[in-house]
Each structure stands twice: as C-alpha cells, then as structure tokens.
Amino acid sequence: MRLVIARCSVDYSGRLNAHLPLATRLLVHKGDGSLLVHSDGGSYKPLNWMSPPCSLSPETPGEEEASAGVVEVWRVTHKKTGDALRVQIYEIIHDSNHDLGIDPGLQKDGVEADLQRLLAEQVDLISEGATLVRREFPTAIGPVDLMVRDANGAAIAVEVKRRGDIDGVEQLTRYLDLLGRDPHLAPVTGVFAAQEIKPQARVLAEDRGIRCVVLDYDDMKGVESGIPRLF
C-alpha cells in the first residue's frame, strides 16, 4: 500500500463528473489497484475513489499544468467502464510504501453472524427452491457470505449485513467480478441481504443488477412462532 499526502486537485469522469479543488489530501493506492482520496474529516469515507479492476498510469503534466505548479499527474482508469480519476499533484508532503500482508478478514458481530447462519438454513428467503452450496465461499479477496444455487442450478452470491450501505454493495460487486470469471459458476447473480438497507445502497445495487432482500431477524429466529430456531 502506498500512502501519499499531497496538495492536489482531483477530477472524476465517466458515468458522472466530479471535481475536488486544490487542497491537501491523503491518497491511498492499495495493492488491489484501487485509489482512495481522503480529507482530514468526513469520517471514514473517501471524498472520491476508483474501485478495482483499475490501473494507475503516471502522465507528464502539460505546459499549462506545469506553469500552474503541477509536478505529477496520475490517471486511474477502470478496466471495464473506462471511468477515470485524474489527480493533479502540486506538492508531495509525504510518500511511503507499506506491505500489510494478508488480512484475516472482518470478524462479524453477533447479530450479523447469526443472520448469516440463519439465512444459510433458510435459503428459500433468497430464492424459492434454492440450495446452499457453502457458507464463507472463498474468493481471491476474501469469502462471500453464502453461495447458493437456485432451483434451476444458477449460482447466487449472497452478502449478509446487519445494516446495508454503499460499502457493502461495493464489496459484493468485487466478489461478483471474481466469481464471474469461474466457468463452473458463471453467470453469477448477486443478492444483498440485510436487516436494513439504506436508500443509496439500494439504488446502487439495483443499478448493478444486484437484488436486495430485507431480513426480519426475529422472524428468522422463530420468535413470533414461539419456537426459537437459534437459541
């Protein structure tokens, strides 16, 4: 992972256009190729980013850019959509590289882990007549929560969250990209399942062909029937 603190401006072009004016920011270029642009505020979310699969290419600043003080230009291009993130760097304050090794993955809290177990037992909630292939189905970037096959044998990758937000949709999108390359699984559809799904996450998921399923935790446990399924 490369961490760069720089005075920079950023332009995103593609399905939407966005501009970040000149300011001091943190640029995170991760080992998976993604680039995240952070400010010293706004909680954990980047101001802008490019998700993998993408590539970063340095460019020589044009004469007008150089005269304005630009010393480096980065272009990060998405390999599928062609969307581009162009970073004009005026000054590098800090530049370091770090090998973080293999991450063991997020340890889910009790409710989220229980949701995953319950849904694995009740995959009809995903698709009527579906069967469970495996929980924690492995990919090169971490396991997807559930791999299911519908009544016709088609593969469905399911990501389970307690609260579904945009980051969860992005995570499932990356899994689907990798799983879709496996001829034994392709084509793979995605289901984003959560107790609560934020409106922005639903819009993004539906735009990417991912189906959203809202889970009723108490009903899945059998609380209403008086016959608990888990405890």
Describe this protein's structure.
Helix content is 19%, strand content 41%. With 231 residues, the protein is α+β, with helices and mostly antiparallel strands. A 7-stranded antiparallel beta sheet has the order 4-3-2-1-7-6-5, with no helix packed on it. Strands 8-9-10-11-12 form a 5-stranded mixed beta sheet, sandwiched between helices. Mean pLDDT is 90; it is low at 225-231. It comes from Microbacterium bandirmense.
What keywords describe this structure?
single chain; about 230 residues; alpha+beta; 7-stranded antiparallel β-sheet; 5-stranded mixed β-sheet; 5 helices; 12 strands; about 20% helix; elongated; disordered C terminus
Mean pLDDT: 90
Counted by DSSP, the helix tally is 5
What general outline do the C-alpha atoms trace?
elongated
Which class best fits the helix and strand makeup?
A: alpha+beta
Based on DSSP secondary structure assignment, what is the total number of beta strands?
A: 12
Largest sheet: 7 strands, antiparallel
Helical content band: 10-25%
EC number: 3.1.-.-
Keywords: Cytoplasm, DNA-binding, Endonuclease, Hydrolase, Nuclease
GO molecular function: endonuclease activity
Domain Endonuclease NucS C-terminal: 111-227
SSE diagram, text form:
Blueprint: E1 2-13, E2 18-29, E3 35-38, E4 48-50, E5 54-59, H1 63-67, E6 72-78, E7 84-97, H2 110-121, E8 131-137, E9 144-149, E10 155-164, H3 166-179, E11 188-197, H4 199-207, E12 211-214, H5 217-221
Parallel strand pairs: 10-11, 11-12
Antiparallel strand pairs: 1-2, 1-7, 2-3, 3-4, 5-6, 6-7, 8-9, 9-10
Helix pairs in contact: 3-4
